[in-house]
């Protein structure tokens, strides 16, 4: 067996698929044979590392369960939505996540809060941070079901673990005393382990009233609001605008 075939076999057995592809391409390009061994090896390692990083990001995005694909680079409605370009650029580094700070995205229905939250979440995934996305009303249901079937510890662990937990549409759905306590547990734990991104069509001043117990409301909001950046979105509902455009085209 030739050395080349043996190397191919080893790379295949070790499941270094990207490195194998790069090795085979090197074999087809005589010019690369003139490079130093370390240079050629470096190219093979670069290919494998890039492939693994890409697979990891893809897995993180899939695990987060975003409702839609979104990327901050596609954000082109700053003026229409009242966004501060400088602030968006600063937040896109996701340094606020590593510092365990929070982000609130506030605005009327249909202005793109969920899209923007998904874009920040997917940016965090590209930086290899774990993210979990939950619609708040669905999470309340999940908490009740987990309490009944005994899976509550597992659910709580899934809310504690990611670097970023996104709660979409806060203020929609009924919060019971039990779910409020879980939200407090999550907010308290995430002060030390990660960040929260909360979207809501209601101003922050109204959030206190969503909790059945004012003491728990004080505790949660103290942990979330006072260490958070805030983005205020403006404008008409994009769904309404698209509907008008569609009717105009008919």
Give a verbal description of the structure:
57% of the residues lie in helices and 10% in strands. The chain is α/β, with parallel strands linked by helices and 250 residues long. The protein folds into two domains: 3-62, no CATH class; 65-241, P-loop containing nucleotide triphosphate hydrolases (Rossmann fold, 3-Layer(aba) Sandwich), CATH 3.40.50. A five-stranded parallel β-sheet has the order 2-3-4-1-5, with helices on both faces. α10 links the parallel β3 and β4 (195-200). 30% of the residues are buried. Residues 241-250 have low confidence and may be disordered.
| End-to-end separation | 69 Å
Number of domains: 2
What is the CATH homology-level superfamily of the largest domain?
A: P-loop containing nucleotide triphosphate hydrolases
Q: From N to C, what is the helix and strand string?
A: HHHHHHEHEHHEHEHEH
Number of strands: 5
What's the helix count?
12
Spatial shape: elongated
Question: What's the arrangement of strands in the largest beta sheet?
Answer: 2-3-4-1-5
Unreliable spans: 241-250
Under CATH, the topology of the largest domain is which? Answer: Rossmann fold
Strand fraction equals 5-15%
Q: What is the CATH class name of the largest domain?
A: Alpha Beta
